[in-house]
Amino acid sequence: MTKIIDTHCHPYLNKIKNKDDIINNFFSNWWEYMIVIWTNLETTKESLDIAKINPKIFATMWIHPCDIWELEVENTILELENIYRENSEKIVWLWECWLDYYWLYKNLENSNLSDDEKEKIVERTKEKQKLFFIKQIELAKKLDLPIIIHNRNSKEDILEILEKTEFKNFIFHCYSEDLDYAKKLIELSPDCKISFSWIVTFSNAKEIQQTAKNIPLKNILAETDSPYLTPTPFRWKEENEPIFTRYVIEKIASLRWENYDYVENEIYNNSVKTFKIEK
């Protein structure tokens, strides 16, 4: 029996196929579970509605750090906690916790602000992102949920916060760093999870491939991040979707020179255990 879980997808964001066809395509292959990620408070209802139509679909909560500047941190955390408590049977991890310095700098590139003004905005925004990140960790501890982390040009600050908070129940989503950084994460939290997306199939992703090859299999998850990051061999041809999860698992197995069925089963067990999904 095929045991595949797409641990990170956005089927409501596909532009070519509708979400019902995408979901049906996934489950028509007798695959196991799908975890739908919302992108902000406005898409919360849509993600939860998708999760509620099928006992094998689950959801998470997420607010992008680039969207937090206008939010009041304490009230937002309280709102997210209330959403979780009202839907706890369907929410399996605590949103995507980001420090996103890439877009922070990118959004300032073409502004008419002086360098001094830009630097002040950068410092203020970084501090608010870090505050929100810490508050998310505190809530994750309170609710006994894992957090999923997406790093954009901020890996050292993320590692520092994880060390200071002594928080170990985390998943690194769409892993894009090298083997050395993965080893630091695993040293900090031996049971943490490193989730590989279709980036691991790209020919220029040598450092990511070395990571997938050399870290313990017990630390590995697989995802699509669909509709983004369409995998080889479909790159540039069509949108990504959860049905393609198999390709990232195949790539991980080939990199490790291990039997595909064995790797698929181990990654499935890792996912079930991490998200406390009953088999």
Condensed summary:
This protein is an alpha/beta fold and about 280 residues long. The chain is about 45% helix and about 15% strand. An eight-stranded parallel sheet has the order 1-2-3-4-5-6-7-8, sandwiched between helices.
By oligomeric state, this entry counts as: single chain
Structural class of the secondary structure composition? alpha/beta
CATH topology: TIM Barrel
Helix content: 40-55%
Order of helices and strands: EHEHEHEHHEHEHEHEHH
Radius of gyration: 18 Å
Which of globular, elongated, flat, extended, rod-shaped describes the shape?
Answer: globular
Distance between the termini: 13 Å
Per CATH, the architecture is Alpha-Beta Barrel
Structural write-up:
With 279 residues, the protein is an alpha/beta fold. It has a single domain (5-275), classed as Metal-dependent hydrolases (TIM Barrel), CATH 3.20.20.140. Helices cover 45% and strands 14% of the residues. It has an eight-stranded parallel β-sheet with strand order 1-2-3-4-5-6-7-8, sandwiched between helices. β7, α8 and β8 form a beta-alpha-beta unit. α3 packs parallel to α5, α6 (155-165) runs parallel beside α7 (179-188) and α9 packs across α10 (260-275). The protein is globular and about 55 Å long. The mean pLDDT is 86.
